[in-house]
Structure formats: structure tokens, C-alpha cells
Amino acid sequence: MKKTRTPLGIYVHIPFCRSKCLYCDFYSLPQAEDQIKRYVKALCAHIAQIAQYTGDYQVDTVYFGGGTPTLLPERYLTDILERIAQRFRMARDAEITIEANPESAQNWRALRRLRRGGFNRLSLGVQAADDALLKAVGRVHTFADVERAVEAIRRAGIKNLSADLIYGLPGQDLSSFLTGLERTMALEPEHLSCYGLKVEEGTPLCRRRGELDLPDDDAQADMYLSAVEKLSAAGYDHYEISNFAMPGFASRHNLKYWTLQEYAGFGPGAHSDLGGLRYAYARDLTGYIAGALSGTLEMSESERLPVRERDTEYIMLSLRTAAGISKPVFENRYRQRFAPLEAVLRRYEKLGCAQPTGEGWRLTAKGFLLSNTIITDLWEAHGQEKLRREAAAASGDFRVLL
After folding, report:
1. How far apart are CA 355 and CA 284, in angstroms?
2. Which residues of 224-250 are buried (b: 16+ CB within 10 A; e: fewer)?
3. What is the DSSP string of 326-341?
4. What does the pLDDT look like over 13-63, one tens digit per residue?
5. Would you give the end-to-end CA distance of the chain in angstroms?
6. Strand partners, 123
7. What is the pTM of this model?
8. Are 383 and 340 in contact (CB under 8 A)?
9. Parallel, antiparallel, or unpaired for β 271-274 and 16-17?
């Protein structure tokens, strides 16, 4: 009998970028290109170190994120991917994604070399179609760059294109957002992500917050709901809070995060969830290179978390997706009663925020907007149930466990 191997995702962090966007909280370093060659060597060494412990796994998704991965020469990118293919068991139909910014994805021959090297999906950081909005948040491309990049991507033969948009930008209103959405949809990406702007602590945008004309929560909600309506009407499946895809083009890699599947991360700041251990590496390029090359790389954080202790995570992550939360999965995997959660979800059903599915519940588009509040209420109900069960078990009343 053929052995079934556990699916595994791989994330490769490329921390180099041309310049830092004002809102960016990811670990990325502008003007550090002199470190690229040593970094690629360190990544390849680290990949070999981890691969020896993954004999029971098969890699079915790989994601190169950043930073701007396409700042690296394509031969470096294909070398890293080749090292992964050599060291890990790779599925033949693996989804292999690379992120790119429009200004770094206009050479169709370079993109074709990436495709021939194994990359079959590209995620393009469009963010907006209005050049003034792009400039306001420190983006260095124009929408004309986006159009040229898409032309190059298609000419290179890449048939799975994702476009990222941000709503709630400084000075943006519903009309300008929808115009940008329509211009992006006209490029016919197979996948589209729409993220609300988050003003993260420590970013330049946060320091300038008081002087910016940021849309309020109601304005952002109108943008989000309008995007849901327009994309759904165009045939995109709204499969996760911020993500839309033509049938068959949902991001298989990102679905791993939302469905608590296993993945291994490489690079400074990268996170992993592998073999019951959740861990991360420090956001320190120099330290990462030295540690990976010497075989002494240390984790900046780690936590062993058995499956049955991931119940609150399952509540949060499953309700980000269109599939929603499953009653049988929750009760069988986590050995917990679903009834307290269902009572909360029925209350939100009356408000148009939740709806039953065949085996559980999901949030509506309106519910996605209130997901933080809904999930907090679910966690509270679940926590009270767990305390009640623990108290009853301690007293010898095992009827509550039924």
C-alpha cells in the first residue's frame, strides 16, 4: 500500500525591498542588496537542515514573500526553489507562488525564466489604481507600471495571477476605491485580495496619523461591502474575509494558515507550524545568515501546542473562511460541546451576520465586518463552558461531559 504523506507548505521570506512603504510592518530592508548573495546561501543551508526531519511530508505549496522577492535575480530565486525540490518530496501539482511589485515585474523574459524554473503563480502588489493614493503611502509604482507588469506576466505564460488592493487609504472615498477596483478587475486576475488599511504601531504612517485624512470605519465598511458585491457579481468566489478567486484559483498556500495545516518558514521573521511545534526566527538578517550558515540558528519563540489545545484558534480561523466552522470537526477534534457556540451564532443570525451551513455555521459579508466582536463573544461562551466542565468534573458530576 502506498504511504500517504502529510501535506506541507513552505514559506520563504525575501526581506529585501527597493523602499519601505509607509504602512509596512513586515520585516523588510531597503538598500541591503549587498547581503543578497550570502542570504541565498544561508537560505539553501537552512532548507537542507530542516528537510532532513520531514520524511513523512509532501510539499504541495511554496510561497516566496517579502519584501520584494523579484528584486533578486531570477537565477537566485530558481536556485532556492531547486534546492527545495531536491531536499523535500514535492507534489507534482504543487502551487508555487512568488510576490512581486509592479516596478520589479516588467521583464517578461525574466518572468518566463521564473515560470520555467517552477513558479506557477504570481501575487502582484497593486494596492490602488490612483497614482496620488499610491504616492501618499510611499509606493514607488504607478498604475501604468501595473498594466505593464500584467502584460509581461501574461506574455511570460503565467496563468495564475493574484492582485492585492488596499481600501481605506488616506484621502480615499468610495467612488475612488470602486474606480480602482474596476480598473484592476479589467486586468482579469484570477485572484484578488482586498485588505483594509491597518495603521500599525511603529510605522511612518502611524507617526503621521494625525495629519492624514483617513476614511472612518463606516466609510471602510462601505468600500468592503461594495467590493464583495461587485466581485461576486463578476464570478469571483468570496472564500475568505479578504480574498476572492475565480473557481479553482483560491490560494492553496494561504488556506493552510486558515485551516491549521502545517507549514515550514525560512528567513528572518518567518513563522512555522510543524510537528506540533509553533516557532519563529528573529527579525535579524545578519543573525539569520550567521546562524543558518553555522548550523546554530536559534528560534526567537517556540511553543508546543497539541491539536486539542487549538480550539480557540479553530474558532477564529475557520470563521474567516466561507466554509465556516464545522460542528462535527469541533466536537470530534477538540472534544468540546458546540451548543454554546451555536447559541451565540443564532443571536448573530438574527442580525444578518451569521448563517447555518450543512454541518455548521459561517459568517455573512456583514458578519465578516464584525468578525472580531463575534469571535470574542464565541471565545467568551466557549471559555465559560470549559470552566463549567472543569468544575463539574472536579466535583465528580460527569453528566456535564456528555
Report:
1. 44
2. beebbeebeeeebbbbbbbbbbbeebb
3. EHHHHHHHH---SHHH
4. 999 998 878 788 788 888 788 999 999 999 999 999 999 999 999 999 999
5. 38
6. 99, 162
7. 0.94
8. no
9. unpaired
